[in-house]
Amino acid sequence: AFHVWSALDFVLLALGALMLTARAELKSYRLVVLAGILLYGPVTDNLYWGQVQMLLLVLLLLLFRGERGDGGALGSVALSVAILVKIYPAVLLGHFALTRRWRFIAQTLSVVLAGEVLGLYFFGPAANLDFVRECVSSVTGSGVGSPLNISFVTLVWRAGHFVSFLRARLAIVILTLPITILLLVACGKAIRV
Question: What is the CB neighbour count within 10 angstroms for residue 80?
């Protein structure tokens, strides 16, 4: 499995490099860029450890390519899959909310919802509930103190630990509340379209 995933990661990296250099006039420039990317330490770490960043790179490049052309559907599906893989690409929905692309947001959220339903169907509710339990435990403190946890919530918790535990929780709520409200407003406006 390691070799298959590593090969897939390398193919995705090469595809991403080709997409990034698509407008380059010299073909040899593409090879130089790919070689330079392979010499960059974090990229080789991602390739070795089998991270999903190469997949996210290609999905986000497909999003932007779809937005440049008339392929809004391609872009929304690519962003949806990226959101299903990792949650942080959902921040890009804020850009589409600011540019009043409500149909794009509605398409993206509907594909995400369909992906979630398929995940519930194929993996069962137990796996999803375990994920929710882990998220709750990382916020409530049982996983926050772990030195292996390097999440944003842990950073805020550790900073607030010296002041007081309640102040740290309040800081978490204050920091995450605007993002949550923005996403809820964007969802509400997208549904009204």
Answer: 23
